[in-house]
Write a structure and sequence with these properties.
With 505 residues, the protein is mainly α. It has two domains: 168 residues, no CATH class; 246 residues, no CATH class. Helices cover 62% and strands 3% of the residues. The protein contains 22 helices and four strands. Belongs to the TrkH potassium transport family.
């Protein structure tokens, strides 16, 4: 394709590698402070990654400073793959995860903020490696590209094409007319909330190390924990779980609304249909789940290592039932994936409910995965309007969202997204089934991977992990994670002949 600007793609890949390598050096410093034995491996991984980035940029320094849609989609998808490949090096060089397949799976699960892990004993991992796991979440949470376009003016490049490819959802709100300024404001909000949560978790009883790691995992809606039992490790410290629950909800909220909140423009929050639907769903579903758990389920059983043990907590205690319910509902809807209890044993009805929640997603413009509430709202509204159109076929009745008419192009895009999402979910489950996984595991694994949720059902339940998958299953799950994180079209468009026809895009 003669019109493709190859040099700018290599320039951006080089920048991403340097960016990734610098964060590895920070993890190496953490490793050195804790004397965990992994410092050398993480350090060399960082140096090699930075050198590769410098070479990539130096050899293509005479490039046209213009990105069109084709380059934008390639840079985003290739960037995520390259970051995941280079991000595997700290695991491999430190021999914390000696298998390349496992190391890549852990890494892409981090960058896509899925939080699915292959580690059987997380607490035995070096501190520097645990910090690197959380860092991959934090980088991926706001999006590698969104972080990148904040510095593109230094290269003299506009970033709108990259932002469109990174966030292809229906939300088009911007904080500032210039996309780079938007990225900077989003980044500052993200950083500020991360610091705030880390401080609160430390005050609530976590160590500084655990507080920082869990804050990075929460704001990215990732779910990697430093403990085998995830957040269930702190079941005797309710304040910690309440703090994480609040910040999971904030992370699942459109960051544009968070910006308005900081500016004191609360009326925009109250009027936002998606936020009201999102918040009321969490509130209502959590209360229903809490009542069922209180009367029917045993909340004294929590996950630790890979087994269930009795926890010293009053069975049927209303506060515990409500806390675990709010925590798990928020965790699944926001696709964070933290675990405070094994929700798959909370009656068959609740197991089914949590499976359905995996298809919700939180808000557009947040760090969560999934379908997103705004798509559900517009699809449901369009469905009801179809009844009116059947009675009045000549009438022009637009779908309205936030009191504004939604263009038919957006409605069609959302319907196409949802149909494609369901097709990929079914295909994902079928492929897992071909590998010999049982029905519950196949369906749960597909929904979890595509929705970037983390814990699933069956062999992939909250008390297990993804290590039981065959090697090919891990690669398939990784592909589904990438599709879900980049909202399908960004990746799949690269597989269409139309995309690669010169001058036709």
């Amino acid at each position: 394709m003669k019109n493709l600007n190859i040099k700018i793609i290599f320039q951006m890949m080089g920048f991403l590698l340097i960016f990734n390598g610098l964060f590895m050096l920070i993890s190496a410093l953490i490793s050195y402070i804790y004397k965990d034995g992994a410092t050398q491996g993480i350090f060399f991984a960082g140096i090699i990654t930075i050198l590769a980035g410098v070479i990539s940029r130096f050899t293509t320094k005479n490039f046209k400073k213009k990105i069109n849609k084709q380059e934008g989609y390639i840079i985003v998808t290739l960037g995520w793959v390259l970051m995941s490949l280079s991000g595997s090096l700290p695991y491999l060089f430190s021999e914390s995860i000696p298998s390349f397949t496992d190391a890549f799976f852990e890494t892409i699960s981090g960058y896509t903020t899925t939080g699915a892990s292959i580690l059987d004993d997380i607490e035995s991992m070096p501190a520097g490696i645990l910090f690197w796991r959380s860092t991959t979440h934090w980088i991926g949470g706001m999006g590698i590209i969104v972080l990148t376009i904040a510095v593109l003016p230094l290269l003299g490049i506009g970033g709108m094409q990259l932002f469109a490819a990174e966030a292809p959802g229906p939300s088009a709100d911007k904080l500032h007319p210039r996309i780079t300024d938007t990225a900077k404001r989003l980044y500052l909000i993200y950083l500020g909330l991360t610091i705030a949560e880390a401080i609160l978790l430390k005050l609530a009883g976590m160590s500084v190390f655990d507080a920082v790691n869990h804050a990075m995992s929460t704001l990215s809606t990732g779910g990697f924990s430093t403990k085998n039992a995830s957040v269930a490790y702190w079941n005797d410290q309710p304040a910690i779980q309440y703090i994480i629950t609040i910040f999971m909800i904030l992370a699942g909220t459109n960051f544009v609304l968070s910006y308005f909140a900081f500016k004191g423009q609360f009326s925009k929050i109250y009027k936002d249909e998606e936020f009201k639907t999102y918040f009321l769903n969490i509130l209502g579903i959590s209360i229903i789940v809490g009542l069922i758990v209180y009367f029917r389920a045993d909340v004294s059983q929590v996950a630790t290592d890979t087994q269930l043990i009795a926890h010293p907590m009053v069975n049927g205690q209303f506060e515990s039932a409500l806390r675990h319910s709010f925590f798990q509902v928020a965790s699944v809807i926001t696709t964070t994936g933290f675990v405070s209890a094994d929700f798959t044993i909370w009656t068959p009805f609740l197991t089914t409910l949590f499976f359905i929640l995996m298809f919700f997603g939180a808000s557009a413009g947040s760090t969560s995965g999934g379908v997103k509430f705004v798509r559900h709202i517009i699809m449901i509204k369009n469905g009801f309007i179809e009844f009116k159109r059947s009675m009045h076929p000549s009438a022009i009745i637009p779908v309205r969202y936030n009191e504004k008419a939604v263009s038919q192009d957006i409605v069609f895009n959302i319907m196409a997204f949802f149909i494609l999402y369901l097709i990929l979910f079914v295909l994902g489950a079928l492929v897992f089934g071909i590998m010999g996984l049982d029905f519950v595991t196949s369906v749960g694994g597909s929904a979890s991977s595509l929705g970037n949720v983390g814990p699933a059902f069956g062999q992939l339940s909250p008390v297990n992990n993804f290590n039981s998958l065959p090697a090919i299953g891990k690669w398939w799950a990784a592909f589904l994670m990438l599709l879900g994180r980049l909202e399908l079209f960004t990746v799949l468009i690269l597989f269409t002949p139309y995309f690669w026809r010169s001058g036709k895009f």
